[in-house]
Amino acid sequence: MFGYVTIRKDDLKIKDYDKYHAYYCGVCQDLKESYGFKGQATLTYDMTFLAILLTGLYEDKTVREEHYCIAHPGRKHVCLRNEFTRYAADMNILLTYYNLLDDWEDEKKHAAYVGAKALRGSFLKVAEKYPRQTRAVKEYLKKIHICEAEKSRDLDQAAGYTGEVLAKLYQFRDDIWKEDLGRLGFFIGKFIYLMDAYEDVEKDKKSGNYNPLVFLQETDGFEEAVERILLMMTAEASRAFEKLPILENVDILRNILYAGIWTKYEMLKRKRESEDEEKKH
User: Fold this and answer.
1) Which of 168, 94, 99 is CA-nearest to residue 126?
2) Which of 37, 109, 194, 281 is the most exposed place for a label (fewest CB within 10 A)?
3) pLDDT, tens digit, for every residue of 9-33?
4) What domains, with CATH codes, occur in the chain?
């Protein structure tokens, strides 16, 4: 479900791209040191955004390091690390573990079962460290399974559950920024759910897997409706973000919220338009 909250590289200054990549490598290094290579394999862009967001808000000390990377072993890469990259790494494990369990329960994907089993020990470490966040994800899965069983046509219900759990994960501390961070996470979560549903709508229609956008697809103006809904989600997320007193890394964060988050959607939309043109001919 994750992987939509990323940068638009062409719109970033070189120095900002390098900094973004250093945070990404920082989260990766935290995953490696805490959970080994299997932890690294769970890395997502979404949690890199969270690490940069919390760093910009709380302005905690960030350490610059250089490490070799298994993907690019020829030279060392710059890593930026702090308590927020560690938190992002932990949340990455938590979400990946439950996402794999969900894939196993829904579609009986053997690879998902094997992946969840491999991450079990790592998950238990995170669950002990962050019981509040773990409870939130468990509760989310219960709600979404009920929603799926009832085949709810309510987009807000299904997407809202994902929004609720991301809101809890974004609320790193119980302080004056908790409400705005939660609101930002809520609408990011709804956007992620709806983007995932949009990407899989044709596949789910054929397989019979639950997807609330299948019901919307039966109406006229499906593409326009999806774009309008996604715009509403990003507008609300951006409104919450702009309330936060963030100066550090703000250009990177705005690039993600105003441009990067649309990258996958634009690619999928072009692909569908191309397929529709081919059908006409």
Assistant:
1) 94
2) 281
3) 999 999 999 999 999 999 999 999 9
4) 9-276 (1.10.600.10)
